[in-house]
Amino acid sequence: MEIKKVALTLGIAILFALFIVFLVDAIYEQPKYEDFCSYQYYPTKAPSLSDNCTTVYNENLVNSCIKEKGEVRDRLDEKGCQIESYCDYCSRDFNSVNSKYNKNIFYISAIVGILAILAGLFLPKTIDAIASGLMFGGIIVLLQGTVRVFGDLGKWMKVIVLGIELVILVWIGYKKVSDRKEVKKVKSKK
Question: Per the confidence metrics, is the pTM higher than 0.70?
Fold first, then answer.
């Protein structure tokens, strides 16, 4: 392939992938941590030694909070002294919503990526650089979606997802990209 075609292929691949990523982000916004958690980690005023602050520790609260995947927080008075402790579930709730979001991004990316790969396969040979660009772009989109969901998957689900994606790409390559037609022509000439 000429350098112009390689440049066009790479350009289309990268821009296609970026276009899809930013289009999906514009339509389907990612959850924001701030919408779930507004906890202030540091008191506005640090207590002084003369404030005689006492620490309240509730072992049952701490154990149940950890068990329910919450975080123990403290309510502070105007001097910065601890008034009480409570269990905050905002991080757990955010992580749950964000995990669902990542799975949805994976499904969208998988569909768009595979469609782009297939579109690249069925475009005529006369526009090979464009077809290759769509195929590479589809692979990048598929990879991006896989990376997003990877942290939320267990060991075996990671293996299964990667295996399925690999099988799909090998099958597409075998059916459409391989030189099987040329091999058949050579065999028929003998």
Answer: yes
